[in-house]
Amino acid sequence: MKKILFLLVISAFILGNNSGCKNRDSQNSDSTIVSNLLNVDSFLVAPEKWAGKEIVIIGTVSHVCRHSGKKLFLFSGDPEKTVKVNTGGDFPTFDIKYEGLDVELSGTVIEDEKIDANYLNEWEAEIKNSITDKDQKVCTEENKAISGQTAEKEKTTEVDNDPYASVKEFRKKLEDSGKAYISIYAIDCKTMKEIKK
Length: 197
What we know:
By secondary structure, the protein is an alpha+beta fold. Helix content is 32%, strand content 30%. The protein folds into 2 domains: 2-19 and 32-113 and 181-194, CATH 2.40.50.140; 116-177, no CATH class. The protein contains 5 helices and 8 strands, in the order H-E-H-E-E-E-E-H-E-E-H-H-E. Strands 2-3-4-8-5 form a 5-stranded mixed barrel.
């Protein structure tokens, strides 16, 4: 067990040093850049502790945004628990070819969104408007436009008959936190490579 732990520490050190080779002279010593090898599940335990720091993370790409290509989502064990990754570094856009692949990327952890009561109220209003607007056009997974009753049937099955479920979940988290807002963290990608098996 000690040998495995030692190898993991050495691997993290080597990977951390390699991820910063491009701009080693421009790095400062104020401890804002930290090289750590994480998987998505370990990152999500306490993402706020990595805010403003550079990390190396491994995971499987679950989705690449098809509209802009400027974000993707990674998971480790549970596909429902993901972290958002924004483009940056050498990536003006992410290619959809990464979907389903295991990757290792480095980047800086940022506070991507703040969810407060106003945010939740606006989100709830958007849901209400989309439910009452029968002429609203919606895209299927194949990017074909649908509208009216067909769209409503597809939306209903997607959210298990409660379109407000996510809003309610965040309201509960906000209340339990005792804070004015919940921070959602993401990673601004600097480098990414596929992990070959």
